[in-house]
Amino acid sequence: MEQVKVLSTWFSPFGRRILIALEEIGVKYEYQEEDLSNKSELLLQMNPVHKKIPVLVHNDQPICESLIILQYIDETWDSKQVSPFDRALARFWADFADKQFFDAGFRIVKSKDEAQEQAKREMLENLQFLEGALKEMSVSGSLPFFGGKDFGFLDIVLAPYVSWFHIFETIGNFKIPFETEYPLLDAWGKRCMERESVKKILPSSDRLLERVFQIRKKFVVD
Q: Is 148 within a domain?
């Protein structure tokens, strides 16, 4: 009998995407909430190199780093037939989202003044790139997701970020013009939030905002 366990924290978008993927495919799993200020022995044992979440433990074998975990889930349990080009394209934009988009978002959280303004400009530019990618991959918006007809790899990567948009706007004191500048992303985000897997896994905006303000206090004195 397969044993699947996920080590993560409730506020990590990287961990949430793993749970969404497992929910979508219908894989039963055990979840262990980690206190990052007092990491469990299991986490230190399963990820001795980085000592970070998330970690997927499958039959006592650990897989680390969220994008690698999602690829593992795809290859182990998902039977969808995806062309090598489409798979590579999705992985490119997943890497872009984590390195460019979320990096800009985290700098909004941990900075102020001009550094924060620069991060906000970069976030809007990155959203424009993602809007263009969605237009291409959804055939100018005629298909609902980055995965085309199906809620796929890249949709799962990006879906947890939908609950962070309000966080970035609140802390950065600005408004992301989704309806006018990023209409495809706006509609895509609403579709994501209607999925049972996403609704079940993502935390409430209020709870998340409270936690992110705590994180901000470690970096910034407002």
A: yes
